[in-house]
Amino acid sequence: MIIGLTGGIGSGKTAAANYFSSAHDIHVVDADLKSRVVVEPGKPALQHIVDRFGAEILLEDGQLNRAALRQQVFSDPQQRVWLEQLLHPLIREEIISDLHSAASPYALLVSPLLVESGQHRLTSRVIVVDVPEELQLARTATRDQVSEQQVRAIMQVQAQREARLRQAHDVIVNDRDLAHLHQQVDALHQQYLAMLQEKEI
C-alpha cells in the first residue's frame, strides 16, 4: 500500500513524514529530494535548464541555483510549465523505483505537488497535513528567511487548501505542537496496519 502525504508549504509535511519513519520505521519517498536528484551535475535535465535559462542559473560549483530558478519560474507561468514538463516524468521514474524497494508494511510518498502533478495516482490513500494559511505564511517566512510575497507566490502555484482537502482520505491538523502532530500520526499508523490486516483476511 502506498500512501501519499501532502500539504502546502510550511504545513509540517516533513515533520509528519519524519515521525512516520523514525517512530514506525515506514519507508518514506520524498518527491522534493527526487526533484534534486534529477538535476544533479552531469544529468541531462540540468543541461536542458542551462540551455534555456543560461549559465547564471548555476552556482559556482556547477550545482543548480534553485533560488534563482525559483525566481524565474514563479514570475513566468510559461517557464514553470516548461520546467514541469521536463522534470515531472523524470521525478516520477525516480519515485517509482524507490517505492518498489520499500520493505515496510506500507510506503509513504511525500510531495508538495502530489495532487497537481498527478503523483496521487500512484497512491491508495492521501493524507493532507492542514494548517491555517496565516500560520503557514508565518512559519515559512521565518524558516526560509524569505518575504511573505514570495511565500504567497509559492502558495498560489500549489493546490488551494480547499482543493487539497477534497482529495484527502485522512487529514492531520497541524496547528498546535509536535506532540499533537505525533498523536495523529500514531493513530493513522494503527489505522493503516488494521486496513492491511483486513486485506489479508
Fold and architecture overview:
There is one protein chain. By secondary structure, this protein is an alpha/beta fold. The chain has a domain at 2-35 and 90-194: Rossmann fold (3-Layer(aba) Sandwich). It is 57% helix and 11% strand. It has nine helices and five strands, in the order E-H-E-H-H-H-H-E-E-H-H-H-E-H. The protein has a five-stranded parallel β-sheet, with helices on both faces. Helix 1 (13-24) crosses helix 9 (178-200), helix 2 packs across helix 5 and helix 4 (66-75) crosses helix 5. The longest helix has 24 residues, at 77-100. It is globular and about 55 Å long. The model has no long low-confidence stretch (mean pLDDT 91).
What key attributes describe this structure?
201 residues, alpha/beta, Rossmann fold, 5-stranded parallel beta sheet, EC 2.7.1.24, cytoplasm, Dephospho-CoA kinase
Strand content: 5-15%
Enumerate how many helices there are, as a single number. Answer: 9
Mean pLDDT: 91
CATH class descriptor name of the domain at 2-35 and 90-194: Alpha Beta
What is the second-level CATH architecture of the domain at 2-35 and 90-194? Answer: 3-Layer(aba) Sandwich
- Which structural class should the secondary elements be placed in? alpha/beta
Rg from C-alpha positions? 18 Å
Through-space gap between termini: 16 Å
Query: What level of helicity do the residues show?
Result: 55-70%
| CATH superfamily grouping of the domain at 2-35 and 90-194 | P-loop containing nucleotide triphosphate hydrolases
Write down the CATH topology of the domain at 2-35 and 90-194. Rossmann fold
Unreliable segments (pLDDT under 50, ≥5 consecutive)? Answer: none
Strand order of the largest sheet: 2-3-1-4-5
Q: Give the number of DSSP strands.
A: 5
Main β-sheet, in a few words? 5 strands, parallel
Overall geometry comes to globular
Order of helices and strands: EHEHHHHEEHHHEH
Function: Catalyzes the phosphorylation of the 3'-hydroxyl group of dephosphocoenzyme A to form coenzyme A.
Subcellular location: Cytoplasm
Protein name: Dephospho-CoA kinase
Organism: Halopseudomonas sabulinigri
